[in-house]
Each structure stands twice: as structure tokens, then as C-alpha cells.
Amino acid sequence: MRINKIVLLLLTAVLFIQCDTVNSVFGGSSKSSSRSKTSTSRTKTSTSGSRAHYNIQHRDDFLSVSDREKESILKESKATEDQYSLLVFTKNFKGEKIVVTSQEKKLFSGYLISNIKTGYADKLTIDNTKDVWVYDNLTKKEIVIDSKEAKKHKFIYLQKDNSNKESPFILIYSNTLRPLD
């Protein structure tokens, strides 16, 4: 019985170390050089009452799909050319109406619901040479996907932060495609 407890304790310690939980819980820094850097910035938009403060991140440090699957999804979405990026709606969409526009042209209007297990709601091909606005009808907030940043990244992830009324969106620019299902 005592050996089982020791093995369980050692296994737990190894898992904590491997997934960097210890570092995030206790504020340490990861010394792994194989991980990509993650940068986070807050941008304040004060031009309109409906615009929100939002959280923008640049990340490539998460699990990715195979190159074959990535190419398949890009081909299916008609986003293989450099001028297109894939906008992926992820966590915390609960059926609210989302409207996506680009230079007075409506690209998408619909009610999104995130899959609880995968965190995936939907995807949309956008022209990354033009600014794109995403408006949430529930919170009456919008976020702008800047064309300068979008050109540098093939995948743009948008998730909701329902706990933060001031900043309801988290925008992640990436060149890594996460598993969608």
C-alpha cells in the first residue's frame, strides 16, 4: 500500500514538471529552449463606445495538427494563398450572434456555440490584406483584426472571455493550426 502511494506521488510530480504546471502555479519561468515565446499585449481602443479593450497574443507553442491535415483544412477552406488567413472561433461562444465584416462587406453572421470538449465553434476564411471587424451582439463589443498582423499569420484564433465585461475577446495570432476536433 505504501509503495503504491510513493509511485503515485512520483508520477504526479513528473506530470507536473512535464506540463509546466509547477511554473505557472508558483510563478517560475520555463527554461525550455524548444518552446516558442508567447507575447501578450493589451490594446485600448477609445474611438467608439462599442469597442472594447482586448487581449492580443502571438503564440505558436501549442499542439498542432499534421502538415497533411493542415493542408487539407486550408484547401477545404480555400485559404491556401498568402492573402488569406483562417479565423477560428474557439472557446466560450454560447449561442450569441456574431457578425464578421470587412470594408462594409458582411463575411459571416450567425450564432456560434463552442464544443465543450474541443473548444472549437467554427472557422472562416478572411482576406488578410483588409481589416476585419468581429461584433458580438450580446455584449455589444467588437474587435478589429488588423491587416498588418493578419498578413504575418495564417491562423487567427478568437475566443470569448465571458468573465471580463470590459474585454470580452482574446485574439491569438499564430502560424500553428490546433486540432479542431
UniProtKB/TrEMBL annotation:
Which branch of life, at top level? Bacteria
Question: Which portions of the chain have biased composition (kind: Low complexity)?
Answer: 27-50
Task: Check the UniProt entry and state the signal peptide residues, or none.
Answer: 1-19
The alphabetical list of record keywords is: Signal
Q: Region entry Disordered: which residue ranges?
A: 26-50
Question: Which protein, by its recorded name, is this?
Answer: Lipoprotein
Q: What is the lineage of its organism?
A: Bacteria, Pseudomonadati, Bacteroidota, Flavobacteriia, Flavobacteriales
